[in-house]
Design brief:
By secondary structure, the protein is of the alpha+beta class. The protein contains 7 helices and 9 strands; from the N terminus they run E-E-H-E-E-H-E-H-H-H-H-H-E-E-E-E. It has a 5-stranded antiparallel beta sheet. A 4-stranded antiparallel beta sheet has the order 8-7-6-9. A hairpin with a 5-residue loop joins strand 7 and strand 8. Helix 3 packs antiparallel against helix 4.
Length: about 270
């Protein structure tokens, strides 16, 4: 049995319902196609109003299926900041239409959730900084721009603040690199290296991932004075975008062909290679 909780209320209990066997199989197939849609139970997915879904696999059969996928029995899916899960979120929302819920008129509740789901596909997210934030200088890049190491360290090295002279690649340190250039694949590889989608309690390098669809990825890191910095390939580290402007928001700065904004990650002392 798979139960779904629409995480939307603040004072009263959230609506819950049980998926049919067919719906549970369809959800499993969606997850199998893109496991990155799932988030930890404590992930930040919104404030007041719609915050996605909490999904629980509660019987042995379905729990076993999820274990084979490497999934915990309780996960989050969707939310205001997860555009990649929009279609699966709409699927889950529509499974509630035939359920018996403890709501006198569920229509406005469903409409509010669907509006946020649809809007999330067009909004790249909000700049969310985790504290305590580990901050490097936003003007002094001598650690990166020396002739003996600048050509051998890239954006992923800079994001990790780890100078390896190996042109580091997401997933290589963990033994499982990305296989395609997209948000889900590159992001998952970075998470295997140790990056998180939730805040750490000790220290946080706040970084974000963007994609040139089908060709390349790029990382930015949050630095001092509310500026974002980056190191394009083997060129110099800097605090400006393609228009030569200081970067205060990596979502809206001029990124050239790197048009897909994937999201934010946090880590500290993450080993890359």
């Amino acid at each position: 049995m798979v139960t779904v909780e629409l995480d939307i209320f603040s004072g009263r209990p959230n609506p819950r319902w049980t998926l049919s066997e067919r719906e549970a199989r369809q959800l499993t197939e969606r997850i199998r196609a893109d496991p990155s849609q799932l988030l930890p139970l404590n992930a930040e997915t919104g404030g007041l109003g719609y915050r996605g879904f909490v999904v629980r696999a509660e019987d042995t059969g379905m729990a076993d299926d999820w274990k084979r996928l490497g999934l915990p029995p309780v996960v989050r899916l969707g939310g205001a900041f997860q555009p990649e899960a929009a279609e699966s979120s709409r699927f889950l929302l529509h499974t509630a239409e035939s359920a018996r819920l403890d709501l006198r008129d569920p229509g406005p509740v469903f409409a509010e959730a669907e509006k946020v789901i649809i809007d999330s596909r067009d909004v790249q997210g909000v700049v969310t900084i985790c504290y305590p934030a580990a901050l490097g200088s936003d003007t002094d890049f001598t650690f990166w721009n020396g002739a003996s190491y600048q050509p051998y360290n890239n954006c992923y090295n800079f994001a990790s603040n780890w100078r390896t002279n190996t042109f580091a690649q997401p997933g290589r340190a963990s033994g499982s690199m990305y296989t395609t250039i997209d948000c889900a694949n590159v992001g998952a590889a970075a998470q295997r290296d140790g990056w998180l989608t939730v805040c750490r309690t000790d220290a946080n390098y706040n970084v974000c991932l963007v994609i040139w669809p089908g060709y390349d990825y790029h990382w930015y890191r949050y630095c001092a004075n509310n500026h974002w910095c980056h190191k394009p390939g083997g060129t110099a580290a800097r605090n400006t975008d393609n228009s030569g402007l200081l970067i205060t928001n990596p979502e809206t700065c001029n990124r050239g062909g790197y048009t897909v904004f994937c999201g934010y990650y946090r880590g500290y002392n993450v080993s890359v290679s």
